[in-house]
């Protein structure tokens, strides 16, 4: 079957999805799961339950995989028959959906939802696991901040729900748009660096610009402190001016820190900072402060709790 599909999709690399949409029909896809065992997963995308064959949508199709295989082959409209050796192992009717909890956190007692407990996403794009890992990373440093006494629980959890709900919404919007694309053309977004898929997963920072509330783009010379906060400064002159106050504040808080100077002549650095020259990142590499030359208010002269909030909590303009 692999040879048959490769002949119909000349030039397509192996191990990808083969997508079909014949005129007047619904889009269908076949994915190779195991090349050695010739094991495949295929589906037909119906606009609604009423558009699907009754024998499938009423549950009867699950008991007749061979019938489902015939429907898949017809929808795929292959140039050559799949042949008698294609054997259906299983079939089912599935309706995709997305859900998001109305509230993710409690202040007293302190508790937070993450992963599938907080949100569900259609499997399109594989976002569910990725968003859940992002939740865990965001919660991890917040819990560490509470246990180490850097932040009070209320402060530590303050931005978690809004930040991660925004990440879920980006991915959900992408899934909705990709389904619309699939239904109309039978094709999917090819993705690529800085494309719609990567933007949905990571946010607008994939364009290489640093933004408060999103991960710092990868920069030459920027080695971040995964256990604490990082000061990233463009140019050694500014680093010498602000680094002492930054380190003194981190010492007051008792938080690990790192300061690094990056070269503004590097294209990636220039694109990331624009008119800014100073950024602060929390443990998960998210930018909490971005400015032309100054540390956040409260870092140099505030108490430990004020300084910690200024360094660790994002305040978008």
UniProtKB/TrEMBL annotation:
Domain FAD-binding: 113-168
MF terms (GO), sorted A to Z: FAD binding; oxidoreductase activity, acting on paired donors, with incorporation or reduction of molecular oxygen, NAD(P)H as one donor, and incorporation of one atom of oxygen
N-terminal signal peptide: none
InterPro entries listed in its UniProt record: FAD-bd, FAD/NAD-bd_sf, RIFMO-like
Cofactor needs: FAD
Keyword Flavoprotein included in the entry's annotation: yes
Organism annotation: Emiliania huxleyi (strain CCMP1516)
Source superkingdom: Eukaryota
SUPFAM superfamilies: FAD/NAD(P)-binding domain
Keyword tags: FAD, Flavoprotein
PANTHER family per record: BINDING MONOOXYGENASE, PUTATIVE (JCVI)-RELATED, TRK SYSTEM POTASSIUM UPTAKE PROTEIN
Protein name: FAD-binding domain-containing protein
